[in-house]
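TICKET: design request
STATUS: open
ATTACHED STRUCTURE:
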């Protein structure tokens, strides 16, 4: 069998239905192996960065590996942003790059290049992949492909890359009996630690569960719901954990961190027990003073990656376990928990939410982004997949949207590349073709992958794109306003937009623009009326900022705009932090 045929057959056997790619000379054998097939499809994107992020979106939604292919040289290097995102956010993806023939590859020769577009992509991506390899001998293809798929999915998921020289792709290989490695089932059960956690829950009067992206990655949403309701413990989430628990559940509080909901930060700051599930506790969650984070709480941290434990925040119990396995083991031991003891805690949480849940209103002539997103949240289908771009729009959405049980909230956390929402949505749409996909983006981010409107049009994808246009890079503008005296270099000065209505219409996608609050209801009704692609532009004033926001060297409960010191003191159960 030709090696490229074997690669495609293997992906089909793995349940992969779509491969995202941009064609190029070094992958023509692989593309030819896709020709005419009905069991797997190519999605021809218009930039390799978008192809990589589309594979990321497919991997996030499908639960399977996403796959992207690119040619050698610039095709391979254009994949890097998407590869990095998959690495930092733990998304299982396989990236296949073409390479020059083995007989024209430089290997260790002290020269820069031999073959046309020859680039050592394996060395370049090693720091942002779980594993990467060049296949220099066709006899290794079965073993390498098997290991790559296993590695992408196993333990903490992530990206892998296989670099396939052209002569290897077209070579004939002998198919031997060789089964793909099965997923390893972790059995790191720590009996004493589990018993101590149950004891901590029984003794606690102000417990909180912090949900990270690892809950979704370990397919533990059902187990988390059971854990919360068996124990009666309220839930806060990181940005990446936002869609792991329904927001209309009485136990859900909100998102924590630098841009978190003020009431969620106050709850976390005053907890006496914090159970951290699948979160790496990055600075955007803890603030720049990690020693002040939940300082009055006993802390339990469960993560599949032992390298994330006791690195940023020291905890009392750390367990290197899969979240689903941990909760499946813990939940049966919680049947006797008396949740009535939390009544004072529940009342305090209600008080925080009552005081600090701001009802943003549209102004006479301006659409307030918070008010708009609240209305949008009520208008979206109950099973919508929401793909959110990076910047102000990400935090406005995370603070505001009311994520329902069957909805998904997809956004990049670690790499956080603006322009990622549209290609992410394309991958999500192919993974779940029966779902409406909603893109929430800004004008700055929309520019970066605007060419993928053609992919949306070509495949007639039911993607609804909502762009909030504030004529600049709002997040940078807010940062420059806070720390650089309002000197808006490049976020405003030098920045410009096209007429997005003309651009979108050129791609033959239905388009509308609104700028007045009284237009919102009808515009959203029109946008969601069918299963066709659609684009809605919202003109907003550049004055709107993300609030609240945590400044550097402040504990997470003390966000700007700052509360009166006496008010904050009355909100605190633990001792008020005093800067040294």
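STATUS: resolved
RESOLUTION: sequence designed for all positions
ATTACHED SEQUENCE:
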């Amino acid at each position: 069998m030709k090696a490229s045929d074997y690669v495609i057959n293997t992906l089909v056997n793995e349940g992969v239905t779509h491969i995202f790619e941009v064609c190029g000379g070094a992958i023509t054998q692989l593309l030819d192996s896709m020709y005419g097939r009905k069991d797997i499809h190519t999605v021809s994107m218009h930039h390799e960065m978008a192809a990589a992020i589309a594979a990321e979106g497919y991997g996030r939604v499908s639960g399977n590996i996403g796959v992207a292919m690119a040619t050698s040289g610039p095709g391979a290097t254009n994949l890097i942003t998407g590869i990095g995102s998959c690495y930092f956010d733990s998304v299982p993806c396989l990236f296949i790059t073409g390479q020059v023939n083995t007989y024209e590859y430089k290997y260790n020769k002290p020269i820069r290049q031999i073959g046309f577009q020859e680039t050592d992509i394996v060395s370049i991506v090693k720091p942002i992949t779980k594993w990467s390899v060049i296949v220099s001998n066709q006899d290794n293809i079965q073993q390498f492909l098997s290991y790559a798929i296993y590695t992408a999915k196993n333990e903490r998921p992530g990206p892998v890359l296989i670099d396939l020289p052209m002569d290897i792709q077209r070579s004939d290989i002998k198919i031997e009996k060789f089964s793909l490695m099965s997923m390893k089932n972790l059995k790191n059960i720590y009996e004493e630690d589990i018993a101590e956690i149950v004891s901590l829950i029984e003794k606690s009067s102000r417990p909180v569960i912090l949900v990270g992206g690892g809950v979704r990655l370990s397919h533990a949403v059902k187990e988390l719901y059971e854990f919360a309701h068996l124990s009666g413990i309220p839930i806060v989430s990181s940005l990446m954990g936002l869609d792991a628990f329904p927001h209309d559940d009485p136990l859900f509080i909100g998102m924590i961190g630098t841009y978190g909901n003020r009431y969620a930060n106050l709850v976390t700051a005053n907890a006496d027990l914090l159970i951290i599930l699948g979160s790496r506790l990055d600075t955007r969650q803890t603030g720049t003073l990690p020693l002040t984070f939940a300082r009055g709480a006993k802390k339990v941290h469960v993560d599949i990656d032992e390298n994330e434990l006791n690195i940023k925040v020291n905890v009392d119990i750390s367990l290197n376990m899969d979240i689903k396995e941990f909760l499946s083991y813990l939940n049966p031991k919680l049947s006797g928990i008396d949740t009535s003891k939390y009544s004072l805690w529940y009342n305090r949480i209600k008080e925080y939410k009552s005081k600090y849940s701001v009802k943003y209103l549209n102004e006479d002539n301006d659409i307030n982004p918070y008010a708009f997103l609240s209305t949008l949240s009520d208008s979206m289908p109950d099973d919508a997949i929401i793909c959110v771009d990076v910047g102000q729009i990400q935090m406005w959405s995370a603070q505001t949207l009311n994520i329902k049980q069957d909805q998904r909230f997809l956004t990049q956390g670690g790499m956080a590349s603006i322009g990622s929402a549209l290609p992410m949505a394309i991958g999500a749409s192919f993974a779940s073709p029966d779902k409406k996909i909603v893109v929430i983006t800004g004008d700055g981010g929309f520019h970066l992958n605007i060419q993928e409107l053609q992919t949306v049009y070509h495949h007639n994808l039911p993607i609804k794109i909502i762009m909030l246009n504030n004529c600049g890079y709002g997040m940078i503008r807010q940062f420059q306003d806070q720390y650089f005296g309002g000197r808006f270099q490049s976020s405003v000065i030098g920045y410009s937009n096209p007429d997005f209505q003309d651009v979108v219409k050129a791609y033959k996608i239905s388009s509308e623009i609104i700028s007045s609050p009284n237009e919102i209801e009808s515009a959203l009704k029109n946008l969601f009326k069918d299963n066709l692609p659609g684009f809605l532009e919202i003109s907003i004033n550049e004055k709107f900022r993300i609030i609240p926001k945590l400044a550097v060297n402040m504990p997470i409960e003390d966000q700007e705009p700052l509360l009166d010191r006496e008010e904050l003191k009355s909100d605190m159960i633990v001792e008020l932090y005093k800067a040294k």
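CLOSING REMARK: The longest helix spans residues 48-62. The CA atoms of residues 383 and 407 lie 5 Å apart.
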